[in-house]
Write a structure and sequence with these properties.
1 helix, 5-stranded antiparallel sheet, globular, mainly beta, 37% strand, 469 residues
Length: 469
């Protein structure tokens, strides 16, 4: 245990903000904020169907390069309703601030009902000040600026009071912004957990490890080319604990979900070597650290493409050839089969398909009473029968994944993105939605959409860089 971080509390502070680090290479997840043990439904219009908010941060908007936008595809009884999309930019009426070159609006997102009105709200950030867009019966409309600076935001309920909170990584500190938020974007109060500069978190995952109804935060750490072991900070009635428990492993990204349904959240993340610069060439492993009432238990498991039942073969890359498979680069949790056990979608964006390098794939690992295993695992790529499109070099299919029930049939559907997919223009990006079923994912009634099909800006947009959760 350690007590190095220190806490500062300020009541009634303004919320978050936006200073975003440079775009990450394929060696680290674009967003490390994970899902909670019971994933909240992202439902902007309150109709009971999960909605998709898809980022295209490199798009040109109103003639301004790298300005970025969000496309919202609402859920419906028939699934993702791509015929009635919503386009949100800094130029949209009610969205604070102006369209700015290099803003990359949508580089990170977080979705929670911040003002307790029953509709999910969306926090959107880039290189400039982030904003919160308010949910309503008509969907997202209007918003407020959030002050401050931050590298990443995630949602949860840290103090267990039933109000959604935001956790912000501000480099040398984690700031917990307690809900409910006012329509001016102000939290009820703020709690800050500060670190020494070298120990500041690179990213974090939010979820209830201990099963006490308060979300905990697992942080990842590194300095220069070295990684440090990730740490859990317990949620309490006053904020995050100032002492941590180590996971015992070097990890990046991750999700928290109760995959064996024992009442405790389990931490699932990409396991890496201590030397950060080797990540992009790894074949990839994920580490499961099971939860308990006191935090992390001693039970862990490592899963990769060489695990029994997992399709494919783990392949490493090298500096003279190509990236490795990077199994676990992106992760998402949700109950695909409807059996009550969360399943885990694993992005493998560096996967080669035949001789096609870095085409990418996605693997579904199924939860059960025995925990997360390779039993019954499924794999999909653009060369899989029934999946629209064609596997191409550097598509990075699986770079972003999300499990959400877009047709409200109590089975999570998989949204998987390939931000470097070429359409009319290079790197315009695309997203596919596969339905959940009793037996797992199916390509029956699969849908796909791109900036072109949604009437959004296309050129170099990298549509699908983020999927809000």
């Amino acid at each position: 245990m350690s007590s190095r971080p220190r806490r500062r509390s300020v009541a009634g502070c303004a919320a978050l903000a936006a200073l975003l680090t440079a775009p990450v290479a394929l060696s680290a997840p674009a967003s490390a904020a994970g899902t909670t043990a019971t994933t909240p439904v992202v439902d902007f219009n309150g109709d009971g169907f999960a909605d998709l908010a898809i980022s295209a941060p490199r798009a040109t908007v109103s003639g301004v390069t790298d300005a970025g936008y969000i496309s919202v595809v609402y859920g419906s009884l028939a699934g993702a309703d791509s015929a009635h999309p919503q386009l949100l930019t800094r130029a949209t009426e009610g969205v604070p601030a102006d369209v700015l070159e290099g803003d990359r609006f949508g580089s990170w997102t977080a979705a929670r009902d911040l003002d307790d009105d029953g509709y999910t709200d969306l926090v959107v950030g880039g290189y400039h000040n982030p904003v919160v867009l308010w949910g309503s019966a008509q969907g997202l409309s209007g918003g407020a600026a959030l002050a401050g600076t931050t590298y990443q935001v995630g949602g949860g309920d840290i103090n267990g009071d039933g109000h959604a909170d935001l956790v912000a990584n501000v480099g040398g500190a984690l700031e917990v912004r307690f809900g409910p938020f006012s329509r001016a974007g102000l939290p009820a109060s703020t709690d800050t957990l500060a670190f020494d500069d070298e120990d500041g978190p690179q990213g974090f995952t939010v979820g209830d490890i201990t099963g006490d109804g308060k979300d905990d935060v697992v942080t990842q750490h590194g300095f220069e080319e070295m990684q440090y072991k990730s740490r859990m900070w317990k949620g309490t009635s006053t904020g995050l604990s100032t002492t941590f428990q180590s996971t015992g492993y070097y990890t990046v990204g991750g999700v928290i979900a109760d995959v064996n349904k024992d009442g405790y959240g389990d931490f699932i993340a990409r396991q890496v070597d201590q030397v950060s610069e080797t990540m992009e060439y790894d074949k990839g492993d994920i580490r499961v650290v099971y939860g308990s009432s006191s935090g992390f238990s001693t039970r862990t498991a490592k899963i990769n493409q060489d695990t029994a039942g997992v399709p494919g073969v783990g392949e490493a890359g090298n500096i003279d050839a190509n990236y490795g498979d990077q199994f676990g680069y992106a992760l998402a949790a949700g109950d695909v089969t409807g059996d009550g056990y969360p399943d885990i979608a694993v992005g493998v964006p560096g996967e080669g398909i035949g001789s096609i390098r870095e085409a990418g794939s996605v693997v579904l690992l199924k939860g059960g009473s025995a925990g997360l295993t390779g039993t019954g695992a499924q794999a999909f790529n653009q060369s899989t029968s029934g999946v629209p499109g064609v596997s191409e070099t550097h598509d990075n299919f699986g770079r972003t994944v999300l499990l959400a029930d877009v047709n409200a049939n109590n089975r999570a559907d998989l949204s998987v993105a390939a931000p470097w997919e070429d359409g009319t223009y290079v790197d315009s990006g695309a997203v596919w939605v596969m339905r959940g079923s009793k037996y797992g994912l199916t390509t029956t009634n699969i849908t796909s959409f791109s900036p072109s099909s949604l009437g959004a800006p296309q050129k170099g947009a990298r549509f699908g860089t983020e999927l809000a959760r």
